Description:
Helix content is 90%, strand content 0%. With 98 residues, the chain is mainly α. The chain has one domain. Helix 1 crosses helix 2. 0% of the residues are buried.
Amino acid sequence: xxxxxxxxxxxxxxxxxxxxxxxxxxxxxxxxxxxxxxxxxxxxxxxxxxxxxxxxxxxxxxxxxxxxxxxxxxxxxxxxxxxxxxxxxxxxxxxxxx
Length: 98
């Protein structure tokens, strides 16, 4: 009988340890999910900031190339950007006319 009692005590101790480990892992899981969410939001914000900076950079390139100091090498890039802007305006007008 003592053998069964001893085994049940060991089993109870192991179950309590497993419950404690499960609780700790569950807490860690919540923390990791929250961190993951924050990092995902940070990535999205940074991607948006990169997009905006690229747009600003392109606008500055166009403005600089339209400056009187621009070289002949910049003209194809300027023409391409102006054509792209015209296409965007045409698309907007087409959507407004629908």
